[in-house]
Amino acid sequence: MPPDLRTFGSAPFGDPQRTRLTGWLHEGGWPRGHMNIAELEGYLVALIAWPVGISAGAWLPPIWSERGWKVSAKIAARLRYDEFVALIIGFMQDLDRELSRQPTRFESSVLRNLNDDGRTEALHSWGRGFMTALTLGSQGFKWRSASAGDAVRHIAGSTSASAPSDPNAVEGIVNAVLTLMEQRPSRGPLGPLAIVGPPETPFGCTTPAAGENPRKSGRRPT
Fold first, then answer.
1. Closest Cα to residue 47, out of 196, 186, 195, 194?
2. What are the structural domains, with CATH classification, of the chain?
3. What is the pLDDT of residues 136-195, one digit of tens each?
4. How far apart are alpha carbons 38 and 129 in whole angstroms?
5. N or C terminus of the chain with fewer C-beta within 10 Å?
6. How many CB atoms lie under 10 A from the CB of residue 195?
7. 205: Cβ contacts below 8 Å, ≥ 6 apart
8. How many CB atoms lie within 10 A of CB 43?
9. Are 136 and 46 in contact (CB under 8 A)?
10. On the CB side of 153, how many CA atoms lie within 13 Å of its CA?
């Protein structure tokens, strides 16, 4: 059964898990057209930055190149399936934390620290994954702002096979993703956005009114 991310909890995702997932996706035995790690990152980033409101049963199978709820024979055994899904969810949670951090430049991205040839191939894969996620929704650009539409078009243009070589392509993609993150209505499959309340005032302290000098008011500065 597809996992329920509302009850799944936090999944660890550090260097060992990243290495494990990257190697696993590189192995043989997957259906033709399954995602590599760059394509997967683009796919998961789109799901959390451009939420399309679909269930895990719809967004997980495209990772192993299936449609509908069908599990690849590569991970059909229960223990392997559980491990793989935990890695995917951990990766998604890690991406959400990284992209939500202020300030962030998405330094953990697989697009970083690649040579020119490797970066070009990774960009194409990343963009393919990103656009695959967007096609899972049926509303297209409906209810999206002009800047969000421009950000998506920039990602599509920068990662297409016909895109000219650009040493600043990764930075441009990161900026476009951050534009989408600022406007997202939810965290996609990870659930609603975290509610950030006003900063707490220490007990016994009050906040001066706007324009009031705390020294003259007799109040303790906060």
1. 186
2. 5-194 (1.20.120.740)
3. 876 656 667 899 999 999 999 999 989 988 889 999 999 999 999 999 988 988 888 876
4. 8
5. N
6. 5
7. 219, 220, 222
8. 25
9. no
10. 8
